[in-house]
Amino acid sequence: MLMPTNLLKDHIEDLLDSFGEAIAISDNNGIMLHVNKKHEELTGILHKDIMGKSALELVERGVFDVVLNPEVVRTGQPATRMQKTADGRKLILEGNPILDRYGQVVLVITFIRDITKIAELKEQMSSQKELLDAFRKLQHSGGKDLEKFPRVISSRAMKKLYAQVSMLGDTDVTVLVQGETGAGKDVFARRLHEVSERSSRPFIKTDCSSIPENLMETELFGYAPGTFSGANKQGKMGLIEAASGGTLFLDEIGELPLAMQAKLLRVLQDREVVRVGSTTPRKVDVRVVAATNKDLEQEVAKGKFRSDLYYRLKVAVITIPPLRKRRADILPLARGFLGYYAHKYQRDVALSHDAEEALLAYHWPGNVRELENLILGCMITCEKKVISARDLSIALPSPEPERHEGVLLDSLDVEGKTLREILEQVEQMVIMDGMAKTGNMSAVARTLGVDRSTIFRKMKRYEGGTA
Ligand SMILES: Nc1ncnc2c1ncn2[C@@H]1O[C@H](COP(=O)(O)OP(=O)(O)OP(=O)(O)O)[C@@H](O)[C@H]1O
Questions:
Q1: Which of 95, 197, 223, 412 could lock 72 by a disulfide, CB 3.0 to 4.6 Å apart?
Q2: 188, 319, 414, 427 from 420: Cα distances, Å
Q3: NCBIfam families attached here (predicted)?
Q4: Closest by Cα among 269, 175, 190, 266 to 221
Protein backbone atom coordinates (compact mmCIF):
# COMPACT_ATOMS: atom_id res chain seq x y z
CA MET A 1 0.00 0.00 0.00
CA LEU A 2 1.26 3.49 -0.84
CA MET A 3 2.11 5.78 2.06
CA PRO A 4 -0.22 8.80 2.09
CA THR A 5 2.76 11.13 1.40
CA ASN A 6 3.75 9.12 -1.71
CA LEU A 7 0.15 9.17 -2.82
CA LEU A 8 0.24 12.95 -2.69
CA LYS A 9 3.59 13.17 -4.52
CA ASP A 10 2.38 10.82 -7.25
CA HIS A 11 -0.70 12.91 -7.86
CA ILE A 12 0.66 16.39 -7.32
CA GLU A 13 0.15 17.40 -10.98
CA ASP A 14 -3.43 16.03 -11.01
CA LEU A 15 -3.98 17.92 -7.79
CA LEU A 16 -2.77 21.18 -9.35
CA ASP A 17 -4.92 20.51 -12.42
CA SER A 18 -7.99 20.11 -10.22
CA PHE A 19 -7.72 23.72 -9.01
CA GLY A 20 -10.08 26.27 -10.51
CA GLU A 21 -7.24 28.80 -10.59
CA ALA A 22 -4.37 29.02 -13.02
CA ILE A 23 -1.10 28.08 -11.29
CA ALA A 24 2.49 28.58 -12.43
CA ILE A 25 5.48 27.33 -10.44
CA SER A 26 9.03 28.56 -10.98
CA ASP A 27 12.29 28.05 -9.11
CA ASN A 28 14.41 30.76 -7.51
CA ASN A 29 16.24 31.35 -10.80
CA GLY A 30 12.98 32.09 -12.53
CA ILE A 31 12.93 28.79 -14.46
CA MET A 32 9.37 27.61 -15.14
CA LEU A 33 8.82 24.19 -13.54
CA HIS A 34 5.12 23.63 -13.94
CA VAL A 35 1.87 25.19 -15.09
CA ASN A 36 -1.50 23.55 -14.57
CA LYS A 37 -4.26 22.98 -17.14
CA LYS A 38 -6.20 26.05 -16.05
CA HIS A 39 -3.11 28.13 -16.83
CA GLU A 40 -3.15 26.84 -20.40
CA GLU A 41 -6.86 27.62 -20.67
CA LEU A 42 -6.54 31.12 -19.25
CA THR A 43 -3.42 32.25 -21.05
CA GLY A 44 -3.67 30.14 -24.18
CA ILE A 45 0.05 29.31 -23.76
CA LEU A 46 0.89 25.63 -24.03
CA HIS A 47 2.60 23.85 -21.16
CA LYS A 48 5.37 22.55 -23.48
CA ASP A 49 6.14 26.11 -24.69
CA ILE A 50 7.12 27.38 -21.27
CA MET A 51 8.50 24.45 -19.35
CA GLY A 52 12.18 24.81 -18.47
CA LYS A 53 12.31 28.36 -19.89
CA SER A 54 13.27 31.42 -17.93
CA ALA A 55 10.30 33.60 -16.93
CA LEU A 56 12.24 36.74 -17.86
CA GLU A 57 13.07 35.33 -21.28
CA LEU A 58 9.35 34.63 -21.76
CA VAL A 59 8.64 38.29 -20.99
CA GLU A 60 11.30 39.40 -23.43
CA ARG A 61 9.81 37.17 -26.11
CA GLY A 62 6.44 38.70 -25.35
CA VAL A 63 4.86 35.42 -24.12
CA PHE A 64 4.20 36.86 -20.67
CA ASP A 65 3.40 40.49 -19.84
CA VAL A 66 4.29 40.33 -16.18
CA VAL A 67 6.35 37.99 -13.99
CA LEU A 68 6.46 38.18 -10.24
CA ASN A 69 9.29 35.70 -9.71
CA PRO A 70 12.24 38.17 -9.40
CA GLU A 71 10.40 40.37 -6.89
CA VAL A 72 9.17 37.45 -4.76
CA VAL A 73 12.67 35.87 -4.75
CA ARG A 74 14.30 39.21 -3.87
CA THR A 75 11.90 40.19 -1.07
CA GLY A 76 10.80 36.76 0.17
CA GLN A 77 7.31 38.31 0.32
CA PRO A 78 4.14 37.70 -1.68
CA ALA A 79 3.54 40.14 -4.55
CA THR A 80 0.46 41.02 -6.58
CA ARG A 81 0.04 42.58 -10.03
CA MET A 82 -2.79 43.30 -12.35
CA GLN A 83 -2.58 42.50 -16.04
CA LYS A 84 -4.87 43.13 -18.98
CA THR A 85 -4.84 40.55 -21.77
CA ALA A 86 -4.97 41.46 -25.45
CA ASP A 87 -8.65 40.43 -25.54
CA GLY A 88 -9.49 42.86 -22.72
CA ARG A 89 -9.71 40.45 -19.77
CA LYS A 90 -8.37 41.55 -16.41
CA LEU A 91 -6.11 39.12 -14.62
CA ILE A 92 -4.76 39.36 -11.13
CA LEU A 93 -1.45 37.62 -10.47
CA GLU A 94 -0.45 36.69 -6.95
CA GLY A 95 3.06 35.30 -6.44
CA ASN A 96 3.85 33.48 -3.19
CA PRO A 97 7.25 32.32 -1.96
CA ILE A 98 7.85 28.75 -0.79
CA LEU A 99 10.72 28.81 1.69
CA ASP A 100 13.18 26.12 2.67
CA ARG A 101 13.97 25.49 6.32
CA TYR A 102 16.64 28.25 6.26
CA GLY A 103 14.06 30.78 5.16
CA GLN A 104 15.39 30.96 1.57
CA VAL A 105 12.96 31.13 -1.33
CA VAL A 106 13.13 27.87 -3.27
CA LEU A 107 9.97 28.08 -5.33
CA VAL A 108 7.55 30.77 -6.40
CA ILE A 109 3.95 29.70 -6.88
CA THR A 110 1.85 32.17 -8.83
CA PHE A 111 -1.96 32.07 -8.86
CA ILE A 112 -3.66 33.82 -11.75
CA ARG A 113 -7.31 34.76 -11.55
CA ASP A 114 -9.56 36.21 -14.19
CA ILE A 115 -11.32 39.06 -12.41
CA THR A 116 -13.12 40.54 -15.42
CA LYS A 117 -16.51 39.46 -14.10
CA ILE A 118 -15.73 40.59 -10.55
CA ALA A 119 -14.60 44.01 -11.83
CA GLU A 120 -17.84 44.38 -13.80
CA LEU A 121 -19.91 43.35 -10.80
CA LYS A 122 -17.97 45.71 -8.57
CA GLU A 123 -18.68 48.56 -11.01
CA GLN A 124 -22.39 47.74 -10.95
CA MET A 125 -22.38 47.47 -7.17
CA SER A 126 -20.56 50.74 -6.78
CA SER A 127 -23.11 52.58 -8.92
CA GLN A 128 -25.86 50.97 -6.82
CA LYS A 129 -24.01 52.15 -3.71
CA GLU A 130 -23.77 55.65 -5.16
CA LEU A 131 -27.51 55.71 -5.75
CA LEU A 132 -28.14 54.46 -2.23
CA ASP A 133 -25.74 57.03 -0.74
CA ALA A 134 -27.35 59.83 -2.73
CA PHE A 135 -30.78 58.64 -1.63
CA ARG A 136 -29.73 58.51 2.04
CA LYS A 137 -28.21 61.96 1.73
CA LEU A 138 -31.38 63.38 0.25
CA GLN A 139 -33.48 61.75 3.00
CA HIS A 140 -31.16 63.16 5.61
CA SER A 141 -31.42 66.67 4.26
CA GLY A 142 -35.12 66.57 3.57
CA GLY A 143 -34.37 66.31 -0.13
CA LYS A 144 -32.65 69.70 -0.32
CA ASP A 145 -28.99 68.82 -0.20
CA LEU A 146 -26.85 69.03 -3.29
CA GLU A 147 -23.50 67.47 -3.93
CA LYS A 148 -20.59 69.75 -4.55
CA PHE A 149 -18.97 67.10 -6.68
CA PRO A 150 -21.49 65.98 -9.20
CA ARG A 151 -20.47 62.50 -10.27
CA VAL A 152 -19.54 63.65 -13.74
CA ILE A 153 -18.98 60.57 -15.77
CA SER A 154 -20.12 61.92 -19.10
CA SER A 155 -17.06 61.57 -21.29
CA ARG A 156 -15.69 58.23 -22.39
CA ALA A 157 -12.39 59.10 -20.77
CA MET A 158 -14.13 59.66 -17.42
CA LYS A 159 -16.14 56.44 -17.67
CA LYS A 160 -12.88 54.57 -18.19
CA LEU A 161 -11.27 56.31 -15.22
CA TYR A 162 -14.20 55.58 -12.91
CA ALA A 163 -14.10 51.91 -13.94
CA GLN A 164 -10.35 51.87 -13.31
CA VAL A 165 -10.90 53.42 -9.89
CA SER A 166 -13.47 50.86 -8.83
CA MET A 167 -11.19 48.09 -9.96
CA LEU A 168 -8.22 49.51 -8.06
CA GLY A 169 -10.43 50.01 -5.02
CA ASP A 170 -10.30 46.23 -4.54
CA THR A 171 -6.56 46.19 -4.24
CA ASP A 172 -3.92 47.76 -2.07
CA VAL A 173 -1.59 48.70 -4.92
CA THR A 174 0.11 52.07 -4.85
CA VAL A 175 -1.52 54.41 -7.33
CA LEU A 176 -0.01 57.34 -9.19
CA VAL A 177 -2.56 59.97 -10.27
CA GLN A 178 -1.32 62.20 -13.08
CA GLY A 179 -2.93 65.25 -14.57
CA GLU A 180 -2.64 68.97 -15.12
CA THR A 181 -3.33 71.34 -12.28
CA GLY A 182 -7.02 71.56 -11.40
CA ALA A 183 -7.92 68.46 -13.43
CA GLY A 184 -9.26 66.59 -10.40
CA LYS A 185 -6.34 64.54 -9.00
CA ASP A 186 -7.43 65.22 -5.45
CA VAL A 187 -11.03 64.28 -6.28
CA PHE A 188 -9.86 60.96 -7.76
CA ALA A 189 -7.50 60.20 -4.88
CA ARG A 190 -10.40 60.61 -2.45
CA ARG A 191 -12.63 58.51 -4.64
CA LEU A 192 -10.03 55.71 -4.63
CA HIS A 193 -10.19 55.79 -0.86
CA GLU A 194 -14.00 55.91 -0.77
CA VAL A 195 -14.42 52.83 -2.94
CA SER A 196 -11.79 50.84 -1.07
CA GLU A 197 -12.26 48.70 2.00
CA ARG A 198 -10.28 51.36 3.84
CA SER A 199 -13.06 53.94 3.45
CA SER A 200 -13.97 53.91 7.15
CA ARG A 201 -10.32 54.54 8.09
CA PRO A 202 -8.39 57.83 7.74
CA PHE A 203 -7.63 59.53 4.45
CA ILE A 204 -4.58 61.67 5.13
CA LYS A 205 -3.50 64.19 2.52
CA THR A 206 -0.14 65.85 2.53
CA ASP A 207 1.12 68.33 -0.03
CA CYS A 208 4.81 67.60 -0.61
CA SER A 209 5.33 71.05 -2.12
CA SER A 210 4.09 72.96 0.90
CA ILE A 211 6.03 71.33 3.76
CA PRO A 212 9.46 72.93 4.27
CA GLU A 213 12.23 70.43 3.56
CA ASN A 214 13.60 70.49 7.12
CA LEU A 215 10.17 69.58 8.56
CA MET A 216 9.26 67.02 5.96
CA GLU A 217 10.87 64.04 7.69
CA THR A 218 9.27 64.61 11.09
CA GLU A 219 5.93 65.40 9.44
CA LEU A 220 5.93 62.13 7.52
CA PHE A 221 7.77 59.82 9.91
CA GLY A 222 7.21 61.41 13.33
CA TYR A 223 9.87 61.50 16.02
CA ALA A 224 10.86 59.49 19.09
CA PRO A 225 10.53 60.82 22.67
CA GLY A 226 13.29 63.24 23.64
CA THR A 227 14.52 63.79 20.08
CA PHE A 228 14.08 67.56 20.09
CA SER A 229 14.37 69.96 22.96
CA GLY A 230 11.11 71.79 23.40
CA ALA A 231 9.24 69.35 21.21
CA ASN A 232 6.57 67.01 22.47
CA LYS A 233 8.32 64.90 25.16
CA GLN A 234 6.26 61.84 24.31
CA GLY A 235 7.39 61.90 20.70
CA LYS A 236 5.00 62.33 17.84
CA MET A 237 3.36 60.15 15.28
CA GLY A 238 4.01 61.08 11.65
CA LEU A 239 1.43 61.29 8.88
CA ILE A 240 2.32 57.84 7.53
CA GLU A 241 1.50 56.20 10.85
CA ALA A 242 -1.56 58.41 11.22
CA ALA A 243 -2.88 57.02 7.95
CA SER A 244 -2.46 53.42 9.14
CA GLY A 245 -5.37 51.26 8.05
CA GLY A 246 -6.36 53.98 5.59
CA THR A 247 -4.90 55.91 2.67
CA LEU A 248 -1.97 58.30 2.56
CA PHE A 249 -2.34 60.79 -0.28
CA LEU A 250 0.97 62.37 -1.26
CA ASP A 251 0.09 65.34 -3.44
CA GLU A 252 2.78 66.90 -5.68
CA ILE A 253 5.03 63.88 -5.16
CA GLY A 254 7.41 65.30 -7.78
CA GLU A 255 8.41 67.92 -5.19
CA LEU A 256 9.53 65.36 -2.60
CA PRO A 257 13.25 65.92 -1.86
CA LEU A 258 15.54 63.08 -2.96
CA ALA A 259 16.44 62.05 0.60
CA MET A 260 12.77 61.72 1.45
CA GLN A 261 12.17 59.74 -1.73
CA ALA A 262 14.64 57.09 -0.50
CA LYS A 263 12.81 56.87 2.84
CA LEU A 264 9.42 56.66 1.20
CA LEU A 265 10.68 53.85 -1.01
CA ARG A 266 11.63 51.93 2.11
CA VAL A 267 8.13 52.42 3.52
CA LEU A 268 6.60 51.09 0.33
CA GLN A 269 8.93 48.10 0.24
CA ASP A 270 9.07 47.11 3.88
CA ARG A 271 5.78 48.57 5.13
CA GLU A 272 7.64 49.98 8.11
CA VAL A 273 8.46 53.44 9.42
CA VAL A 274 11.28 54.44 11.71
CA ARG A 275 10.56 57.63 13.64
CA VAL A 276 13.28 60.29 13.64
CA GLY A 277 15.59 59.66 16.62
CA SER A 278 14.56 56.00 16.88
CA THR A 279 15.96 52.79 15.48
CA THR A 280 12.88 50.67 16.02
CA PRO A 281 10.82 50.07 12.92
CA ARG A 282 7.05 50.15 13.33
CA LYS A 283 4.75 48.23 11.02
CA VAL A 284 2.32 50.36 9.07
CA ASP A 285 -0.55 49.32 6.86
CA VAL A 286 -1.12 52.23 4.50
CA ARG A 287 -2.23 52.45 0.93
CA VAL A 288 -0.26 55.16 -0.82
CA VAL A 289 -1.83 57.28 -3.52
CA ALA A 290 0.53 59.85 -5.05
CA ALA A 291 -0.32 62.67 -7.43
CA THR A 292 1.72 64.82 -9.74
CA ASN A 293 1.29 67.33 -12.53
CA LYS A 294 4.91 66.84 -13.54
CA ASP A 295 6.22 64.36 -16.04
CA LEU A 296 7.99 62.08 -13.56
CA GLU A 297 9.76 60.26 -16.35
CA GLN A 298 11.44 63.52 -17.30
CA GLU A 299 12.21 64.23 -13.64
CA VAL A 300 13.88 60.81 -13.48
CA ALA A 301 15.90 61.65 -16.60
CA LYS A 302 16.98 64.93 -14.98
CA GLY A 303 18.06 63.07 -11.84
CA LYS A 304 15.43 64.83 -9.72
CA PHE A 305 13.30 61.80 -9.06
CA ARG A 306 14.51 58.31 -8.14
CA SER A 307 13.81 55.81 -10.87
CA ASP A 308 13.22 52.96 -8.37
CA LEU A 309 10.54 55.00 -6.59
CA TYR A 310 9.02 55.99 -9.94
CA TYR A 311 8.71 52.35 -11.02
CA ARG A 312 7.23 51.46 -7.65
CA LEU A 313 4.66 54.24 -7.97
CA LYS A 314 3.69 53.56 -11.54
CA VAL A 315 2.37 50.05 -10.83
CA ALA A 316 -1.07 51.55 -11.34
CA VAL A 317 -1.42 54.91 -13.04
CA ILE A 318 -4.54 57.01 -13.36
CA THR A 319 -4.12 59.75 -15.94
CA ILE A 320 -6.79 62.43 -15.80
CA PRO A 321 -7.08 64.13 -19.17
CA PRO A 322 -7.25 67.93 -19.17
CA LEU A 323 -10.77 69.34 -19.47
CA ARG A 324 -10.17 70.53 -23.06
CA LYS A 325 -9.66 66.88 -24.02
CA ARG A 326 -12.96 65.74 -22.51
CA ARG A 327 -15.34 68.44 -23.59
CA ALA A 328 -18.33 66.18 -22.90
CA ASP A 329 -17.71 66.90 -19.20
CA ILE A 330 -17.77 70.71 -19.46
CA LEU A 331 -21.52 71.31 -19.38
CA PRO A 332 -22.45 68.61 -16.84
CA LEU A 333 -19.74 70.01 -14.55
CA ALA A 334 -20.82 73.61 -15.15
CA ARG A 335 -24.45 72.76 -14.42
CA GLY A 336 -23.42 70.80 -11.34
CA PHE A 337 -21.45 73.76 -9.95
CA LEU A 338 -24.24 76.13 -10.89
CA GLY A 339 -26.76 73.99 -9.01
CA TYR A 340 -24.49 73.66 -6.02
CA TYR A 341 -23.65 77.36 -5.66
CA ALA A 342 -27.18 78.51 -6.58
CA HIS A 343 -28.43 76.42 -3.70
CA LYS A 344 -25.69 77.64 -1.39
CA TYR A 345 -26.25 81.35 -2.18
CA GLN A 346 -30.01 81.02 -2.58
CA ARG A 347 -30.00 82.19 -6.19
CA ASP A 348 -32.09 81.11 -9.10
CA VAL A 349 -29.81 81.24 -12.14
CA ALA A 350 -29.27 79.37 -15.36
CA LEU A 351 -26.82 79.45 -18.25
CA SER A 352 -28.00 80.79 -21.61
CA HIS A 353 -27.42 78.76 -24.73
CA ASP A 354 -24.64 81.09 -25.95
CA ALA A 355 -22.98 80.94 -22.51
CA GLU A 356 -22.91 77.15 -22.79
CA GLU A 357 -21.39 77.43 -26.25
CA ALA A 358 -18.72 79.80 -24.96
CA LEU A 359 -17.87 77.35 -22.17
CA LEU A 360 -17.57 74.55 -24.70
CA ALA A 361 -15.30 76.61 -26.95
CA TYR A 362 -12.87 77.70 -24.25
CA HIS A 363 -9.61 75.79 -23.75
CA TRP A 364 -9.57 75.68 -19.90
CA PRO A 365 -5.89 75.96 -18.98
CA GLY A 366 -6.89 75.82 -15.29
CA ASN A 367 -9.17 72.82 -15.92
CA VAL A 368 -12.10 72.00 -13.61
CA ARG A 369 -10.88 74.38 -10.91
CA GLU A 370 -11.04 77.27 -13.37
CA LEU A 371 -14.55 76.26 -14.47
CA GLU A 372 -15.72 76.03 -10.85
CA ASN A 373 -14.25 79.43 -9.98
CA LEU A 374 -15.75 81.01 -13.07
CA ILE A 375 -19.23 79.74 -12.23
CA LEU A 376 -18.86 80.81 -8.62
CA GLY A 377 -17.61 84.28 -9.70
CA CYS A 378 -20.54 84.73 -12.11
CA MET A 379 -22.99 83.64 -9.49
CA ILE A 380 -21.74 86.25 -7.08
CA THR A 381 -21.25 89.15 -9.49
CA CYS A 382 -24.04 88.66 -12.05
CA GLU A 383 -27.45 89.81 -10.92
CA LYS A 384 -29.37 88.45 -13.87
CA LYS A 385 -31.31 85.22 -13.83
CA VAL A 386 -29.74 83.95 -17.02
CA ILE A 387 -25.98 84.12 -17.42
CA SER A 388 -25.07 85.04 -20.99
CA ALA A 389 -21.80 84.60 -22.90
CA ARG A 390 -21.13 88.32 -22.35
CA ASP A 391 -21.36 87.83 -18.60
CA LEU A 392 -18.85 85.04 -18.90
CA SER A 393 -16.53 86.95 -21.16
CA ILE A 394 -16.03 89.47 -18.36
CA ALA A 395 -14.36 86.66 -16.50
CA LEU A 396 -13.19 84.62 -19.46
CA PRO A 397 -9.93 85.59 -21.09
CA SER A 398 -10.33 85.56 -24.88
CA PRO A 399 -10.40 81.95 -25.92
CA GLU A 400 -7.18 80.70 -27.43
CA PRO A 401 -7.41 78.56 -30.51
CA GLU A 402 -7.30 74.90 -29.61
CA ARG A 403 -3.71 73.87 -29.50
CA HIS A 404 -2.87 70.78 -31.38
CA GLU A 405 -1.95 68.37 -28.66
CA GLY A 406 -0.48 65.60 -30.75
CA VAL A 407 3.24 65.54 -31.31
CA LEU A 408 4.10 69.20 -30.78
CA LEU A 409 7.23 70.47 -32.33
CA ASP A 410 7.95 72.59 -29.31
CA SER A 411 7.74 69.58 -27.01
CA LEU A 412 10.59 67.97 -28.93
CA ASP A 413 14.16 68.56 -27.93
CA VAL A 414 15.60 69.41 -31.35
CA GLU A 415 18.48 71.67 -30.38
CA GLY A 416 21.71 70.08 -31.64
CA LYS A 417 20.00 66.74 -32.27
CA THR A 418 20.39 64.63 -35.41
CA LEU A 419 17.34 63.75 -37.48
CA ARG A 420 17.59 60.18 -36.20
CA GLU A 421 17.54 61.32 -32.56
CA ILE A 422 14.53 63.56 -33.23
CA LEU A 423 12.68 60.72 -34.96
CA GLU A 424 13.44 58.50 -31.97
CA GLN A 425 11.82 61.07 -29.71
CA VAL A 426 8.73 61.13 -31.93
CA GLU A 427 8.62 57.34 -31.89
CA GLN A 428 8.83 57.30 -28.10
CA MET A 429 6.04 59.87 -27.80
CA VAL A 430 3.75 57.88 -30.09
CA ILE A 431 4.38 54.61 -28.24
CA MET A 432 4.05 56.13 -24.77
CA ASP A 433 0.89 57.97 -25.85
CA GLY A 434 -0.55 54.67 -27.11
CA MET A 435 0.38 52.95 -23.84
CA ALA A 436 -1.16 55.79 -21.82
CA LYS A 437 -4.38 55.51 -23.81
CA THR A 438 -4.75 51.72 -23.93
CA GLY A 439 -2.42 50.42 -21.22
CA ASN A 440 -1.96 47.45 -23.53
CA MET A 441 1.22 46.60 -25.41
CA SER A 442 -0.48 44.27 -27.87
CA ALA A 443 -3.06 46.91 -28.80
CA VAL A 444 -0.35 49.52 -29.40
CA ALA A 445 1.64 47.03 -31.49
CA ARG A 446 -1.45 46.24 -33.58
CA THR A 447 -2.25 49.91 -34.17
CA LEU A 448 1.31 50.71 -35.17
CA GLY A 449 1.63 47.58 -37.31
CA VAL A 450 4.67 46.16 -35.53
CA ASP A 451 5.36 43.12 -33.36
CA ARG A 452 4.53 43.24 -29.70
CA SER A 453 8.16 42.31 -28.94
CA THR A 454 9.30 45.43 -30.85
CA ILE A 455 7.18 47.63 -28.59
CA PHE A 456 8.42 45.75 -25.56
CA ARG A 457 12.07 46.19 -26.57
CA LYS A 458 11.63 49.88 -27.24
CA MET A 459 9.82 50.47 -23.95
CA LYS A 460 12.58 48.69 -22.08
CA ARG A 461 15.03 51.03 -23.81
CA TYR A 462 13.00 54.10 -22.71
CA GLU A 463 12.94 52.81 -19.13
CA GLY A 464 16.69 52.45 -19.23
CA GLY A 465 16.85 56.04 -20.53
CA THR A 466 18.79 55.04 -23.64
CA ALA A 467 16.31 56.49 -26.08
N1 LIG B 1 -15.00 65.28 -11.41
C2 LIG B 1 -15.19 66.39 -10.68
N3 LIG B 1 -16.41 66.67 -10.18
C4 LIG B 1 -16.60 67.79 -9.47
N5 LIG B 1 -15.66 68.69 -9.16
C6 LIG B 1 -14.43 68.46 -9.61
C7 LIG B 1 -14.13 67.29 -10.40
N8 LIG B 1 -12.81 67.34 -10.72
C9 LIG B 1 -12.31 68.48 -10.16
N10 LIG B 1 -13.27 69.14 -9.48
C11 LIG B 1 -13.16 70.42 -8.77
O12 LIG B 1 -12.07 71.13 -9.32
C13 LIG B 1 -11.22 71.65 -8.30
C14 LIG B 1 -9.82 71.15 -8.55
O15 LIG B 1 -9.80 69.74 -8.36
P16 LIG B 1 -8.57 69.04 -7.63
O17 LIG B 1 -8.13 69.80 -6.43
O18 LIG B 1 -8.94 67.60 -7.44
O19 LIG B 1 -7.49 69.19 -8.77
P20 LIG B 1 -5.95 68.75 -8.75
O21 LIG B 1 -5.70 68.08 -10.05
O22 LIG B 1 -5.67 67.97 -7.50
O23 LIG B 1 -5.25 70.17 -8.72
P24 LIG B 1 -3.74 70.54 -8.23
O25 LIG B 1 -2.80 69.92 -9.23
O26 LIG B 1 -3.73 72.03 -8.33
O27 LIG B 1 -3.60 70.00 -6.84
C28 LIG B 1 -11.76 71.17 -6.96
O29 LIG B 1 -12.28 72.28 -6.27
C30 LIG B 1 -12.89 70.24 -7.29
O31 LIG B 1 -14.04 70.72 -6.62
A1: 95
A2: 40, 30, 11, 10
A3: sensory_box (TIGR00229)
A4: 266
- Name the residue ranges covered by the structural domains of the chain: 21-114, 156-321, 324-395, 409-463
Alpha carbon nearest to ligand 1 atom 23, residue = 182
The whole-model pTM stands at 0.57
- Give domain 324-395's CATH architecture: Orthogonal Bundle (1.10)
**What fold does the segment set 409-463 form as a domain?**
Arc Repressor Mutant, subunit A (1.10.10)
Residue 380 CA to its chain's centroid (Å):
37
For ligand 1, atom 5: residue with the closest CA: 149
User: Comparing 464 with 142, which gets the higher pLDDT?
Assistant: 464
Alpha helices in 147-281 (DSSP H): 156-169, 185-194, 213-221, 239-242, 258-270
ipTM value > 0.95: yes
| Alpha carbon of 370 to ligand 1 centroid (Å) | 9
Indicate the class that CATH gives domain 21-114: alpha beta
Compute the distance from residue 277 Cα to the ligand 1 centre, in Å.
38
